[in-house]
Structure formats: structure tokens, C-alpha cells
Amino acid sequence: MSDILIRIKRAVLAGNLAFTDKAATERERDGLTELDVAESLINAVAIYKTIRSTNRRRRHRREYLHVIQSTNMTGIFIYTKGKLVEQASVEVYCLLVSAKRAE
Questions:
Q1: Domains of the chain: which residue ranges?
Q2: Which end of the chain is more exposed for a tag (fewer CB within 10 A), N or C?
């Protein structure tokens, strides 16, 4: 298991999971709860892929988004895309782009 995935799981277990409006809207549209997404992240055995993203408006132009596909405790396959960020010296896993049922 990768170091990044372990850090993501630790952030989720500590309750440090944040959703952007877009990710929350997708999650709600698919009938998923925050707990469903948290369970999926905890159950993950690997990061599906990591994408390097760039944006001129951000202070740090380069960031890495981690795509994780895994099931929650009831077997629903969930797709998430997010990044680890540090807020007040605490790592938070921020679901920026997506939290929805995987297709």
C-alpha cells in the first residue's frame, strides 16, 4: 500500500474529509452519504491513478489529484478524485472534483 494512500486513510479516520460543492452535489445526486464515501476510501487497496493538475490561479501551480475506486461496506462501487492538503498543520483529504458511484 502506498504512503499516500495510508496518509489519505489516516486523514479520513481522523474525520478530516472535506467536500467541495461539486463533489457534494455529485455525491447527493447519486444517493451517497459522506459515510459511504469515507467507507470506500478506508476500504481502498490502491490508488487507481494520480493526475498532475496545473492552474495559473493557484499559489502552487502544480498539484496531484488521486483517483480512488473502491466499495463501501455494502458493496457500492464509488469513484473519488481529490488531494491531500494541509490546514492548520493537519492533513485533510479534500474531495475536489468528484465523489460518485463508479460506472
A1: 3-101
A2: C
Condensed to tens digits (0 to 9), the pLDDT of residues 24-63 reads: 998 999 999 999 999 999 999 999 999 987 766 666 667 8
Q: What angle do CA 38, 81, 79 make, to 5 degrees?
A: 65
The pLDDT value recorded for residue 50 is: 92
Provide the Cα torsion 2, 15, 20, 67; round to 10°. Answer: 20
Q: What is the dihedral of CA 67, 45, 1, 17, to 10 degrees?
A: 60
CATH topology of domain 3-101: YaeB-like fold (3.30.2310)
Q: Is 37 helix (H, G, I), strand (E, B) or coil?
A: helix
